[in-house]
Amino acid sequence: MKKPYEYIVNGVSFVFMDSSFFGLPDIFPDFIGYLSFIYGIHLLPSLHNFKRWSKNFAIILAVLSFFVELDQWLGYKILGDIGIQLMQFLFIIFMYCVFQLLLHIHYNKPLEAKTFKTYQTYIALMLCGFVIQAFSMNVEESMRENVHFIGSVLQLVAYFFFVFYFRACHKYYKYSMPSQ
User: Fold this and answer.
1) Angstrom distances, CA of residue 150 to CA of 18, 125, 126, 156, 157
2) Which end of the chain, N or C, is less surrounded by CB atoms within 10 Å?
3) Angstrom distance (rounded) from CA 158 to CA 162
4) Which residues contact 162 (CB under 8 A, 6 or more apart)?
5) Can you give the three-state secondary structure of 31-89, one letter per residue?
6) pLDDT single digits (tens) 113-166
7) What is the pTM for the complete model shown?
8) What are the distances in angstroms from CA 159 to CA 45, 76, 90, 111, 118?
């Protein structure tokens, strides 16, 4: 196996890392992360429909995220916060498809229970973070950043759950399968 989990973790890392919070340009563009997702999903050992759906969804997200990034780089703010919220929501749906694919791949294997538990925790934390961030636009200006920060922290915790899970997957396949 050509390490599909590394490409998927790299994809998640590029999507999650955003240096624009620090006033810097985003040097980790999301569309590169989605391209890494596409290749990682391509390498996964499955012929299930979820693989095709996940790959196609990643292609759509790569194109959409390119335009959202371009909007931010040029400073037009045509899409504004709505475009960012839309991308976060679509990312959560995309990760649902990825987890369904992984549940299919890990069916009746030692990783099945860990996949399901990580899936539940990840989706719950991401949805809570998304809802908090979406409603932070309706909060007083003085509290908006604090509320947005809480949503970001929940999503960061979900990211770490995901990274630890994929590290376990990588170790499992590294030691249980002969090298090619």
Assistant:
1) 16, 11, 12, 10, 11
2) C
3) 6
4) 9, 12, 118, 122
5) HHHHHHHHHHHHHCCCCCHHHHHHHHHHHHHHHHHHHHHHHHHHCCCCCHHHHHHHHHH
6) 888 888 899 999 999 988 988 888 788 888 888 888 898 899 889 989 888 888
7) 0.81
8) 24, 29, 16, 18, 10
